[in-house]
Design goal:
Oligomer: single chain
Order of helices and strands: HHEEHHHHHEEHHH
CATH topology of the largest domain: Four Helix Bundle (Hemerythrin (Met), subunit A)
Structural class: mainly alpha
Shape: globular
Strand content: under 5%
Number of strands: 4
Length: about 280
């Protein structure tokens, strides 16, 4: 009965995957290149502009977001590239790529503008305008996570896609895990009104490079883990295919990864840092 239901879902999905003259894989590749260009631009600004905001260089957040976008779109591009032509050019994935591109342009434009003005882009509700823009960034993040989920679903439903079986499973579980865990963690983060649970001192200890607090609960480590399930679990799948391991290994890895992310998140909500100083 379950297998019949799954086949029916795939049949319906195949029917709505109507081809267009555009290619989602090329769209994601172009977005990745644009994000790399933005990374280089914000890196240059980071080196040239020594102004600070919230204890950090003003261009650090735009730089981090550029890197994150480049990795996100590169991963989506690699996944869609191996889909069958029907799915790769489907109106569903092409529209999704366009929507995620619009979210990328909007978020980077606003974050960059706020950095240039030496003002916060996140958790800034000092005026109705800033509160509205922060809400729109949340909407953009929702579009991006739905994109991840839809591409993961397409990888599962496209039987003609060029994936080894365990890699396919790793992509599906990784993409779905990223979507679900990020909605949970980022939603709580937005409602918390800030990245910390507790009040860190101005010069409190932080993890090198990452900047995560070693003094109070910090929600960013869990957010980081949630976002990168879509890269980590496909790598497990690729390794399992190379070593001819059982698909059960991927399920176990996904369960352990999600459990660890949840543990890190719940620990932060209790005000406990990931690593204490």
């Amino acid at each position: 009965m379950l297998e019949t239901g799954l086949q029916r879902i795939r049949s319906i999905a195949h029917a709505i995957a109507i081809p267009t003259r555009f290619d989602a894989a090329r769209g994601f590749a172009r977005l990745s290149r644009a994000a790399v260009g933005m990374t280089l631009l914000t890196l240059g600004m980071l080196m040239l502009d020594d102004r600070m905001i919230g204890g950090e260089p003003v261009w650090l957040k735009p730089f981090k977001f550029s890197v994150s976008f480049a990795l996100l779109f590169a991963t989506l591009g690699l996944a869609t590239q191996r889909l069958s032509p029907r799915w790769r050019t489907s109106w569903l994935l092409v529209s999704t790529a366009g929507a995620s591109g619009a979210a990328f342009v909007f978020e980077m434009a606003y974050i960059g503008t706020q950095a240039a003005r030496q003002e916060l882009s996140h958790f800034n509700d000092t005026t109705p305008f800033h509160a509205m823009m922060y809400g729109l960034m949340g909407a953009g993040a929702t579009v991006l996570m739905l994109t991840v989920g839809l591409v993961g679903g397409a990888v599962w439903m496209d039987r003609a896609a060029r994936f080894a079986p365990r890699l396919r499973l790793g992509i599906v579980l990784g993409f779905i895990a990223t979507m679900v865990l990020t909605f949970w963690v980022a939603g709580t983060l937005a409602g918390n009104g800030g990245r910390f649970v507790g009040l860190p001192s101005a010069d409190g200890p932080k993890l090198p490079l990452l900047g995560w607090s070693m003094e109070v609960g910090d929600l960013r480590p869990a957010h980081f883990l949630a976002l990168h399930a879509m890269q980590i679990l496909p790598l497990f799948g690729l390794l399992a295919d190379r070593l001819i391991l059982s698909a059960r290994v991927i399920w176990i890895a996904a369960l352990l990864y999600a459990s660890f992310t949840a543990m890190v998140f719940l620990k932060a909500l209790q005000g406990i840092p990931l690593i204490s100083a």
